[in-house]
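Retry 2 of 3 after timeout on previous attempt. Resubmitting structure tokens to design endpoint.
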């Protein structure tokens, strides 16, 4: 007889993925706005089949607690809807809420400061047989500086080129993960799963540059993990933004 069919896919040992995201935000005034983010994902795993399709939809709103031309403190609430196919690695298969605080401050004519603090709160999620829920709270926090290499503004035209440096961290407060690399040598991806505590802290650094002309801007950047535990080792990001 042939091999027995697997009841679950093999554990993944590495994934390359590309995300395309269409983001729309509408402001009713200088304090309140609403947004929607529609992602489309391509994943290229090492052990499982490639997949592509829509990811988890994100919607939310922002309210500026402080709204000044050079100083903003904003409350943001974001909700994640499980529209992505979790069985193919395109979504999480549960709803999540993410309240957070965002800040922006111009320090000088050329330098700006920005920061964030968010709490990703899963609702539901897959449960282990005996340990508890896989999904856990994740705190996200970050800070960065922008430096204008060039900035000009007149009545008819506004231009700028800004160098951006960011540090972003995540602290996983609880939850579990599947661990196939807890033995020496590592076990096969087809071996029985081992559940491990997912609590950890991850920190990344990101460098980028944004060129803006009359409300249109193009950003290109690169990010690298600074810690042993990672969400990803390297990330490249290209963003085109239009303000209207």
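Retry 2 succeeded. Sequence:
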């Amino acid at each position: 007889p042939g091999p027995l069919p697997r009841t679950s896919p093999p554990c993944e040992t590495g994934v390359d993925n590309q995300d395309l995201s269409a983001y729309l935000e509408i402001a009713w005034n200088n304090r309140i706005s609403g947004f929607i983010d529609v992602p489309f994902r391509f994943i290229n795993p090492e052990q499982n089949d490639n997949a592509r399709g829509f990811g988890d939809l994100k919607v939310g709103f922002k309210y500026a607690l402080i709204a000044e031309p050079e100083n903003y403190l904003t409350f943001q609430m974001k909700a994640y809807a499980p529209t992505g196919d979790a069985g193919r690695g395109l979504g999480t298969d549960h709803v999540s809420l993410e309240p957070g605080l965002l800040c922006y401050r111009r320090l000088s004519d050329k330098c700006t400061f920005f920061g964030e603090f968010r709490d990703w709160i899963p609702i539901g999620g897959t449960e282990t047989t005996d340990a508890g829920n896989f999904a856990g709270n994740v705190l996200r926090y970050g800070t960065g500086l922008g430096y204008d290499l060039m900035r000009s503004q007149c009545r008819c035209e506004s231009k700028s080129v800004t160098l951006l440096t960011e540090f972003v961290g995540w602290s996983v407060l609880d939850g579990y993960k599947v661990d196939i690399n807890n033995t020496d040598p590592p076990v096969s991806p087809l071996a029985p799963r081992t559940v491990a505590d997912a609590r950890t802290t991850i920190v990344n650094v990101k460098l980028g540059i944004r060129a803006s002309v009359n409300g249109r801007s193009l950003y290109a950047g690169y990010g690298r993990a600074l810690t042993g535990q990672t969400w990803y080792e390297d990330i490249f990001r290209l963003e085109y933004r239009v303000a209207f």
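Attempt log closed. The CA atoms of residues 7 and 84 lie 21 Å apart.
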